[in-house]
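ingest -> validate -> predict -> emit
validate: passed (alphabet ok, no gaps, 169 aa)
predict: started
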Amino acid sequence: MNRKDIAIEDFRYDPAQLRDHWLSLFAGDFNSGAYNAMTISWGSYGQIWNKMFFQVFVRPTRHTYEFMERYDTFTLNAFEPKYKQALSILGSKSGRDGDKIALAGLTPMASREVAAPCFREASLVIECRKMYWQDIDNTHFLDSGIEGNYAKKDYHRVYFGEIAHVSRA
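emit:
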């Protein structure tokens, strides 16, 4: 599929879209075939340390966590609404139990600038290089309602990824 590059300085994204338009997070290495993907609905986008970045959250219980820890890059993939069922599969099945990417009917392909794969079907691909991580510490919650997101006490690891490349279908 031909993709149109978007200059990072021209790219804009409204993270409030994540409430209704989930993204897939793809981590690993395309060339080695070692990768996994999951659906995300939490994240942020902006500028820090004079770099444009995306911030993503991954629980240590997720299979994708292993790939986020092992590899230095990840991609975020946005899809048209017709792919909602595919994203539901990526978010509800584990890659430990089988090939959920094939089950979702999606096609991994090489990214332009990073080792992590992207999806051929994605309407938008954001390629990132990890630059920082931090584990969520529940002793820092100022709003007591936040703890309700962690019934299993499986607090997320937060990754900051510098945006390396952006393209549209």
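Residues 4-168 form a domain with the Pnp Oxidase; Chain A fold (CATH 2.30.110.10).
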